[in-house]
Amino acid sequence: MAVQRKRVVRATDAILRGEDPGRAAGVLIDAKWLERRNGNLAFGPACGDIVGLSVNRESLEWVVAGVGELLAAGQLDADVLPIRGEPASPSELQQHLTSAFAAAAPHLPHGRVAGVGIAWPAPIAPNGEPRDYPFHHAGLRSRQTEPSLPLTPIVRRALAAAKIGDEETETAPDIAVINDADADMLFEMRYGVARGAANAMGLKICGGLGTALVHDGRLVRGGSGAAGEIEHIRVRLSEAENLTWEKLVALEDLPPCPCTGRECVGRFATGGAIIDQLANYFDGEELTPNERGRRIEAEPMSPVISDVCGRAGGLLGQALLGPVLAFDPELLVVTSFPHSDALVDAIRTKLTKGTAVYLKGEKIVAGTPDRPTSAIGAAQLAIEQSVVPRIDREVPYGRPSTQRRDLPAWLRQRIPAAVEDVHDHAPDYGTAVGPGA
């Protein structure tokens, strides 16, 4: 048994490090943890299939994840938490999720979902469900007489409706919920621009605004799950450039922050605020915020768009100065919709010119482009919380004192040193996700 364990450990370690996968794969293929599909290694029937979802304000992204690869991906229009308008009701959210799962179903290699990761655009409470602040968008706000439900039961009902999962059985898929900024950072740490960083910060600019914090290789959630929520930091408009372009909505005319604050950086520098400032730029065309955002990305050389995004970046840099000084990251990864190089450049200038931060300009970088990073990060969370523990349980243990030492490096880096470290502190992703764990 000990020999078998060592063979599986060495094989898994070699495959995940990319070392001689051809020779090492046989052990895990025999155990049905892996299989060869279309010439590539993929999760076998013992693992099941992994689906990642990113719930955006006006769209849903879905992915089917494999061993360090993307098997399939897609996007659906869905008004879940629209920038303008009422959030979806629980039944409407279930319908949207069902549509996403149904779109992913034909791409599931085994037709059985073992784990689902959900990236959600709000803080995640210690119980693993989205927080619902009175001044924040209501994550699952009840409407009319319909009761508000936690997210996890809605996901299970959507899986059952899509006929790829059972609601209440022993084989029901594991559901893992993660903040979308954290999901982006998990992707970047595993596959993107933050690989190898032990202390990093991720900034996500979309319909809302938030940061992901990585300390000693671990995502920091905070006591209430709201670590990195910087949207309500106040900024000084006196430092913002006064733009005089025609058809531009003035900063003072933008709607107040959801907390009713008039100086919150979220009022002026979210992706939604950038889109709102350029609402008249498209000559009154009837476009959704998502469509306007894509048009903005398609015109990066427009001086109007460049100036608006640059001004937003300057305000963001102003708001980030305190957190960056306090946290002292070695890397800042900026992800935004609409994406703009001018925005990243302005953040870089504001944070590094004439300030006391140690962060160098070249260490303020844009996130990985043209990838569904939030959905992949959520899927990665499901892999590390569902597939990895099952492999760990199935591989026979040695003496208790050597259990963790005997695990392959890719497992050891992704689980805590002791189960007690995460007991009653869901979601587990807050405990150990990086190379320093």
Brief rundown of the structure:
The protein has 437 residues and is an alpha/beta fold. The chain is built from 13 helices and twelve strands. Strand 6 (113-120), helix 4 and strand 7 form a beta-alpha-beta unit.
Keywords:
alpha/beta, 437 residues, 5-stranded mixed sheet, Nucleotidyltransferase, domain 5
Spatial order of the strands forming the largest sheet: 5-4-3-6-7
Number of helices: 13
Work out the radius of gyration: 22 Å
Q: What is the CATH architecture descriptor of the largest domain? A: 2-Layer Sandwich
Q: Return the average pLDDT rounded to an integer.
A: 80
The biggest beta sheet is recorded as: 5 strands, mixed
**CATH homologous superfamily identity of the largest domain:** ATPase, nucleotide binding domain
Share in β-strands: 15-25%
Low-pLDDT regions: 17-24, 135-140, 396-437
What features would you describe in this structure?
With about 425 residues, this protein is α/β, with parallel strands linked by helices. The protein folds into two domains: about 45-190 and about 370-400 and about 415-435, ATPase, nucleotide binding domain (Nucleotidyltransferase, domain 5, 2-Layer Sandwich); about 195-365, ATPase, nucleotide binding domain (Nucleotidyltransferase, domain 5, 2-Layer Sandwich). About 35% of the residues lie in helices and about 15% in strands. It has helices at about 1-15, 20-30, 90-105, 150-160, 180-190, 265-270, 270-275, 290-300, 305-325, 340-350, 375-395, 405, 410; strands at about 35, 40-45, 50-55, 60-65, 70-75, 115-120, 175-180, 200-205, 210-215, 220, 330-335, 365. The strands form three sheets. Strands 5-4-3-6-7 form a five-stranded mixed sheet. A hairpin with a 3-residue loop joins strand 8 (about 200-205) and strand 9. Helix 3 (about 90-105) crosses helix 4 (about 150-160) and helix 9 (about 305-325) packs across helix 10. The protein is globular, with a radius of gyration of 22 Å. Residues about 15-25, about 135-140 and about 395-435 have low confidence and may be disordered.
